[in-house]
């Protein structure tokens, strides 16, 4: 049976819908930008077998990592329905949802907690501060309303017992001469007037025609109790609102982390780097310290599988430790050494790994003295191998101030970087060192005109060496450059 133009278009539209849905699923799972290139289409007895090549454009910047995925789907030409039943998974075993989202929120849901509500109520203050504003307003409104109604009932009962309410036993049995007897609360002769008097007493609005007198001692006592209760409720409300408004949660929104992390050479060592900055000019973060950890899968020597193992990595800022002077954007560096979890990872191996780098910045707000914590995370597809951050700090002579251009905060550029693992690269450096010390290098490399850079076994092009010798010694492994 010949396939008509309409059937071909229907099949093509169905394939495009399936492909778009697949790309969206991968992007939602990995937070990586993907492009798909069709490779081949094979018709089998089970339907059409679509083969596409997915490219992660964030893997190495312009140099894209590729992976081929074949998806079998049954296409019904009558209703253009694509059945994805039994389709193979995209990147099986390679997709990891974030533990910490890019905005710092923790992607975690705690379920089946025993006596959760009771535990939350025992910690009322924290619960009230953490809940949303709509629930705060509801709780505050209900608190005021219930207190007004509760004391209104008390005032009504006092007036009813004293015979101030028409129809009460005391008022009906009273003698005519008792009609001139003063009331407990002047002006309270119904529940509505008792409710209004309750509001006036609790909020010290000021008495008008309704007021208490010395006729009923119980009325004086209730008035004092309600006044104290009203002050306490208002203190609680002010305390909750102030604590909620003064939280440093929103302060972390002015702290920025770079969109990507980079791996490049610095002082002859492979380093993983990312940026952090504070956009505020006056209220700085004092005592800022930064830490990082890698969440990865680990198998112990006993065979125990730890799916989310926390491995802390050492980070530093310039020549200092993890303390950061955050007056301008800082580039945080992690040296990939023998203690690093990335020591044996090459560029191609890293993009295939499943891990998440969680970065935590802690400090104290200068203006309020409160502690603050900002978080973000990086997936393997967000690590740019062979890239370096652009400089964004300059000096303006006209104003005499240093200038920070935040439009370049996420900008990187490519540089020559070995794509081998740090372990292989350092072993090669040791080999060249030992070869050089024994005088086994070519004769033209041993002349007096040679100069050696500070980086171990990395020679500059103006050192008198030939281009071939320089390329061999400087970057013996495949490099990724423009």
UniProtKB/TrEMBL annotation:
The Potassium channel inwardly rectifying transmembrane domain, residue ranges: 100-248
Transmembrane portions of the chain: 137-158, 219-243
Catalytic activity: K(+)(in) = K(+)(out)
Key words, A-Z: Ion channel, Ion transport, Membrane, Potassium, Potassium transport, Transmembrane, Transmembrane helix, Transport, Voltage-gated channel
GO function terms (MF aspect): inward rectifier potassium channel activity
Domain called Inward rectifier potassium channel C-terminal: residue spans: 255-427
Key word Nucleotide-binding present: no
Subcellular location: Membrane
GO biological process: potassium ion import across plasma membrane; regulation of monoatomic ion transmembrane transport
Gene Ontology CC terms, in alphabetical order: monoatomic ion channel complex; plasma membrane
Annotated membrane topology: Multi-pass membrane protein
Pfam family, one: IRK
Matching SUPFAM superfamilies: E set domains, Voltage-gated potassium channels
Family the entry assigns: Belongs to the inward rectifier-type potassium channel (TC 1.A.2.1) family.
Protein name: Inward rectifier potassium channel C-terminal domain-containing protein
Organism: Tetranychus urticae (Two-spotted spider mite)
